[in-house]
Amino acid sequence: MTMRTSARLLSVALLSLGLITGCASTGDSDGITAEQAIADAKAANAEAKAINYEWRDTGKIIKKAEDKLAAGDEEGAIKLANKAKAQANTAVAQANAENRKFLNENTDGAATADKADAGARGAAGRVSSYSVVRGDNLWNISGKDEVYADPYQWPLIYKTNRDKIKDADLIHPGQVLDIDQNASASEIDAAVNHAKTRGAWSLGDTEQSDRDYLAK
């Protein structure tokens, strides 16, 4: 083997080693910077906030991610940012699913127009109680034809069953909820207004906006 050939092989070996080392220093090819993870979380949460479905602690988690990044903990910042993003995406997905369900159940234009009237909304239901099954929430229960045929009236169920429901976002299979079919037009309007302006929420907690609504 000539000296030139040996030098060429050594150069190839060093180049290969350099490439391998370079790849190792960049980490996973699917990796993301903490700054980008936080930006993605903020964008997802902004979408949830825009439709009044922001979870109460998502913003706090993003703030913690920013604090981690400022302290030099990139891995911790990414983990928190991804958690916040997942929460926001879940909130948006739930809102979209509930809206689709509502639209599918109200395709009749005449019926939809009738429901716009507060008095007509109160007369839509027929049952005086409802037994919760797996997958239920106050929104879809209220949207059932035999209840109120309007998901935005769910605060009426919450208020009627305040002794059974601690968190409006958390009900359990087997619970038997009372359904008030004699709510006044003003009570219905107050319930719908609360449903639309409630703000951020979080599972397991009683939101201040809910406490304010119950106190009225």
What does this structure look like?
The chain has helices spanning 3-26, 34-50, 58-70, 74-105, 109-115, 118-122, 138-143, 154-160, 185-197, 208-215, and strands at 129-131, 176-178. The chain has 216 residues and is mainly alpha-helical. The chain has 2 domains: 32-105, no CATH class; 109-215, no CATH class. Strands 1-2 form a two-stranded antiparallel sheet. The longest helix is centred in the middle third of the chain and has 32 residues, at 74-105.
Q: How many discrete structural domains?
A: 2
Uncertain spans: 2-29, 112-124
Number of helices: 10
Structural class: mainly alpha
Radius of gyration: 27 Å
As a percent range, the share of strand residues is under 5%
Mean pLDDT level? 76
Count the strands?
2
Strand order of the largest sheet: 1-2
Please state the overall shape, judged from the principal axes of the Cα atoms.
elongated
How do the helices and strands follow one another from N- to C-terminus? HHHHHHEHHEHH
Oligomer: single chain
Proportion of residues in helical segments = 55-70%
Q: What does the main sheet amount to?
A: 2 strands, antiparallel
Distance between the termini: 94 Å
